[in-house]
Amino acid sequence: MKLSKKGEYALRSLINLGIAAEMKRKLVQVSELAESEQLPVKFLEQILQALKEAGIVESERGKFGGYRLARPANKILIGEVVRLIDGPLAPIRCVSQTAYEPCTCPDEAHCGLRMLMLDVRNAIADILDRYSLADVVEITLRKMRRDSISLPFSPQGGAGEVQSRLPARIARAQLSRRGRTPRRGRNSPTDGVLHHILGEYSI
Predict the structure, then answer these.
(1) Which residues contact 84 (CB under 8 A, 6 or more apart)?
(2) 26 and 64 co-located in one domain
(3) Domain region containing 143
(4) Model pLDDT for residues 162-193, shown as the tens digit of each residue
(5) In whole angstroms, what is the distance from residue 149 CA to residue 165 CA?
(6) Which residue in 33, 79, 160, 164 could disulfide with 128, CB within 3.0 to 4.6 Å?
(7) Based on the domain organization, do 16 and 110 belong to the same domain?
(8) In the chain, how many domains are there?
(9) Residue 130 to residues 143, 184, 190: CA-CA distances in angstroms?
């Protein structure tokens, strides 16, 4: 499984809508979502329409309209969104639970490759179907607060004004001036959602 740009944009936008809900924002305009994550507006509008048709988000029209989550964030599983946008999680079709197709193997029941890919599929699905949007939003906010990063869609910026996330280099500079260094590394296990959910990350 490889997350497409469309899937990435969908998840990033949903996380921001989840954060906005936590900040008591009723609606978020497409332009705000696009600006906060530096996404192309037109492409994002298509993605949001697909999410709306699936009942994941809802919208209101008008000058002050925008988008919000259509149901509580804890009722939106990450795996649901990935399947909606990018299709089956399985690396090959013969191990898919939602879009099974027989492969060209003459003996599927004893195919070593299929057994291996089934384990891969189950590992991916176990994570994506275990965690909800609420889990990811909670972890995101916790890390931003810990690192003293301005929260997106926070009322501190004024009514209706979006607080964009600071670029990583600026955040590091701010923390360095405070004598603190973020405990994170590229692809470090301590930077993943699982580590936070399990409570192994000290803040």
Answers:
(1) 10, 50, 51, 54, 56
(2) yes
(3) 5-75+132-197
(4) 444 444 444 444 444 444 444 455 566 566 66
(5) 7
(6) 79
(7) no
(8) 2
(9) 21, 24, 19
